[in-house]
Design goal:
CATH topology of the largest domain: UDP-n-acetylglucosamine1-carboxyvinyl-transferase, Chain
CATH superfamily of the largest domain: Enolpyruvate transferase domain
Number of helices: 14
Strand order of the largest sheet: 21-22-1-23
Structural class: alpha+beta
Pfam family, one: EPSP_synthase
Number of strands: 23
Radius of gyration: 21 Å
Helix content: 25-40%
CATH class of the largest domain: Alpha Beta
Family: Belongs to the EPSP synthase family. MurA subfamily.
Organism: Paenactinomyces guangxiensis
EC number: 2.5.1.7
Shape: elongated
Bound molecules: uridine-diphosphate-N-acetylglucosamine, phosphoenolpyruvate
Function: Cell wall formation. Adds enolpyruvyl to UDP-N-acetylglucosamine.
Length: 415
């Protein structure tokens, strides 16, 4: 089984360039199918989820060409057919094909989406939105069939703040007749990024980045060129890793504003954070104050950095609490961190993390993407060697992880 082998105890030093945002890319790749001419997406991250999505588009008949971090997607040869491949079940963001293909053909038959196993991940708010736009939904044997003889704009209130539902409804609404209003919409930077792409394609969208988004449907969308925003979760992971190893790292090609909640928590612990226009310099320390983390929709602390942050908290001088308000059972990393010596107790949706615990190397497994990131950070902190399996999860979301870390003077290799 493929594994990452990490010999810890080296402070990270140097600079790291952050790739394009996974969660923008995974919405934009399908979004290009809404157009009637080719689109070019720049700053596409070289990660497994993107490769998978490109394969799904190939299977549908689109022509996708890739040159470095740029992909061109020509949707014109795409055929109307059910999307039932295994790939759909392995990719959370395959749910975006619902909104896109519904917008394009007013009908879609699709397998249920996969992605990280974080406990229950319902898509009832996506469905509620499609239904409000006039869609009939039938679910049987793990397959969803959505049919809308006509998509009609509507007022939709989301019961939970959902990134996926907000974006998916924007896709269908961009092609509906009349005006749609999404209330209690997600405000994540990736939602704004996708709205910007759709606007460049000819859609009429106002309010992205606030909790009320207004979409005026249009008859046709055309191809465009768009540069994806930097991945704030990848950036946050390197910030945490720098702090955890008492390192000094310049995180480049980022939007510091997107990381305010992470910078604030690191500062509260005693990490030095210096923000520039497009970079953040992180300087670790040998003494950290314990802090409490509560994950919330943006601009709150992101759930996707909760697991990596937990590894750092094992170094704090006291006990910290980590509460995940988005995914109540996102604690698959805890049993593995315990193998490395961590003392963490999970009570409901809260992990109680004991500090001042030196971690040691062990054989551990990444059960999901960010659990993998948390184990990599723990391994960088540990004195001796750690073997991490489950690299397929880590590769879903981190471009060239071992190369980037090796450039920061980490001792890491893939076997
Ligand atoms: C591909 C992608 O962009 N993934 C991100 C996206 O996932 P995803 O879009 O799946 O996450 P959501 O924002 O939809 O989920 C937020 C919360 O709402 C709940 N919910 C969501 C939809 C729904 O119909 N019903 C419902 O109850 C979820 O179970 C969760 O508790 O946002 C999450 C929250 O920031 C991130 O962790 C993921 O990295
Ligand atoms: C949960 C995540 O991804 P996905 O929604 O694609 O499973 C993540 O990026 O941490």
């Amino acid at each position: 089984m493929e594994k990452l082998v990490i010999k810890g105890g080296h402070p990270l030093h140097g600079s790291v360039k952050i790739s394009g945002a996974k969660n923008s890319a995974l919405a934009m790749i399908p979004a290009t199918l809404l157009a009637d001419s080719p689109s070019v997406l720049e700053n596409i991250p070289d990660i497994r989820d993107v490769a998978f999505y490109i394969e799904v588009l190939h299977d549908l008949g689109a022509v996708v060409t890739r040159t470095g971090a740029e992909i061109t997607i020509d949707p014109s040869p795409i055929r109307h057919q059910p999307v039932l491949s295994q790939k759909v079940n392995q990719l959370r963001a395959s749910y975006y094909l619902m909104g896109v293909l519904l917008g394009k053909w007013k009908e879609v038959t699709i397998g249920t989406p996969g992605g990280c196993n974080l406990g229950l991940r319902p898509i009832d708010q996506h469905i509620k939105g499609f239904q409000a736009l006039g869609t009939k939904v039938v679910q049987e044997d793990g397959v969803l069939r959505l049919i809308a003889p006509k998509l009609q704009g509507a007022r939709i209130y989301l019961d939970v703040v959902s990134v996926g539902a907000t974006i998916n409804i924007m896709f269908a609404a961009a092609c509906a007749d009349g005006k749609t209003v999404i209330e209690n919409a997600a405000k994540e930077p990736e939602v704004i990024d996708v709205a910007t792409l759709l606007s460049s394609m000819g859609a009429v969208i106002k309010g992205a980045g606030t909790d009320i988004i207004r979409i005026q449907g249009v008859k046709r969308l055309h191809g465009c060129r768009h540069t994806i925003i930097p991945d704030r979760i990848e950036a946050g992971t390197y910030m945490i890793a720098a702090a955890a190893t008492e390192g000094e790292v310049l995180i480049e090609q980022i939007i510091p504003k997107h990381l305010e909640s992470v910078s604030a928590k690191l500062r509260e612990m005693g990490v030095q954070i210096q923000e520039e226009e497009e970079s953040i310099f992180v300087k670790g320390s040998s003494r950290y104050t314990p802090v409490d983390i509560k994950t919330l929709p943006y601009p709150g602390f992101p759930t996707d950095l909760q697991q990596p942050f937990t590894s750092l908290l094992t170094r704090a001088h006291g006990t910290s609490l980590v509460t995940d308000n988005i995914y109540s059972s996102r604690f698959e990393h805890v049993s593995q961190l315990e193998k490395m010596g961590a003392k963490i107790k999970v009570e409901g949706r809260t992990a109680i993390v004991e500090g001042m615990i030196p971690l040691h190397g062990a054989r551990v497994h990444a059960f999901d993407l960010r659990a993998g990131a948390s184990l990599v950070i723990a391994a960088l902190m540990a004195e001796d060697v750690t073997w991490i399996t489950g690299t397929n999860h880590i590769d879903r979301g981190y471009e060239q992880l071992e190369q980037k870390l090796a450039r920061l003077k980490a001792e890491i290799r893939r076997e």
